[in-house]
Amino acid sequence: MAGTSRHDREMATRAKQRLSDCSDPVERLRLQCLTRGSSGIKGLGRTFRMMDDDNNRSLDFKEFLKGLNDYGLLIERDEAAALFQHFDRDGNGSIDFDEFLITLRPPMSKARKEVVMQAFRKLDKTGDGVITVEDLRGVYNAKYHSKYQNGEWSEEQVFRTFLDNFDSPYDKDGKVTKEEFINYYCGVSASVDSDVYFILMMRNAWKL
What we know:
By secondary structure, the chain is mainly alpha-helical. It has helices at residues 4-19, 25-34, 40-51, 61-70, 77-87, 97-104, 110-123, 133-136, 146-149, 155-166, 178-190, 195-206, and strands at residues 58-60, 94-96, 130-131, 176-177. Strands 1-2 form a two-stranded antiparallel sheet. A two-stranded antiparallel sheet has the order 3-4.
């Protein structure tokens, strides 16, 4: 999507600057994820999901700590413990990682969320809640892509690369769920100050 990589770079730089004078543990974790660009929070979500061996969608402190380390986030054990306590609302020694990711996402206004959902519904042609290469065929024109025009990539490769933007960097499966799409745009949204500009950017990008 045009402009996204520039927004990513600006956001990563801004997040790094803000990290140096931020003391709130939740905000620090959010900023550490955002230094990796729009897909930073989504990537952490995937790391946690891979660790959830029993599929109960929750993590104990040991798993939480390992997830942060596996993802390469530099957090002191004390800070991680404070974070864990913040998310372990009922004090039962485990955290629900869907709730954790929702709290970690940079907040998005109602108007922004609505336009993101409009784009998702438009792309999800089959209406099954997941965007695939098949869904993109009638919506996204690969023939305008420079690498398709010079014969370097096939149409399929253009579609896969496009989906990879939204997919998690560590587990690209060519499918993008509603959650991944929203996580991605929460990241983009964090780098765009004006609601009007964000909505205009979305409408232009997806012809909404």
